[in-house]
Write a structure and sequence with these properties.
By secondary structure, the protein is mainly alpha-helical. The chain is about 80% helix and about 0% strand. It contains eight helices and no strands.
């Protein structure tokens, strides 16, 4: 497959995973209303920090390990528990949450908070057991298309894939940034609370599924 076609394939299929509701999207929505348009790139950076080593591992032959029932079970239980804790914490703190007067007024604090947001992007990605499983199955089939082109093929494919994430999460954060003037503190608390409850629900689902892979159901 020619490199431009490979890039287009990666960019197009990247959206199928990015736009799906999940912990990373909820984290993006939650932070964007407060910090603004830079949340999308920060979340994408955190996601990429976790994802790139995973992709390299799949290319080097770790796909079988990532599909193993024990691996999926351990990641599901650990990740689900982490997401549950994050979701409950988010929903609890939503009771006292408030919007800053201007998300761009505090550049130093903003840089610190964006670092935390990147960490949240990494943690929510790492806590999702279907994230490594996707790369070990669906992602592996796409990487096979890139294999004939060698390292350049892998690089082009991953660039297209991560750009899809960047475009989507940047669009989400930009939309929240522009719409935040229409959001009251009460509305913001409800938004954060809803994101927290959804993240907790995903945590329960992942943990239950992980337990199932242990043979407990």
């Amino acid at each position: 497959m020619a490199l431009p076609a490979l890039f287009a394939l990666a960019f197009g299929t990247g959206f199928t995973g990015a736009v799906a509701p999940g912990p990373v999207l909820f984290a993006t929505v939650r932070w964007s209303a407060r910090r603004g348009r830079w949340v999308g790139p920060a979340v994408t950076l955190g996601h990429m920090i976790v994802e790139l080593p995973l992709v390299v591992g799949v290319v080097l032959g770790l796909g079988g390990l990532l599909k193993a029932d024990l691996f999926v079970a351990v990641v599901g239980l650990a990740g689900g528990t982490t997401l549950l804790a994050m979701g409950v914490s988010m929903a609890w703190t939503a009771r006292r949450a408030s919007l800053p007067s201007n998300a761009d007024d505090d550049p130093d604090g903003g840089r610190i908070e964006l670092g935390r947001i990147a960490a949240a992007g990494a943690l929510t990605s790492l806590s999702n057991p279907y994230f490594p499983l996707w790369w070990a199955t669906v992602g592996l089939s796409f990487l096979a298309q890139a294999a004939p082109a060698g390292p350049a093929g892998y690089a082009v494919f991953y660039t297209g894939h991560v750009l899809a994430d960047l475009v989507w999460y940047s669009a989400v954060s930009e939309s929240m940034h522009r719409g935040r003037r229409l959001l009251s503190d009460r509305g913001y608390r409800r938004l954060v609370g809803a994101c927290g409850l959804l993240m907790a629900a995903f945590g329960v689902f992942f943990a239950v599924r992980g337990y199932g892979f242990l043979g407990g159901t």
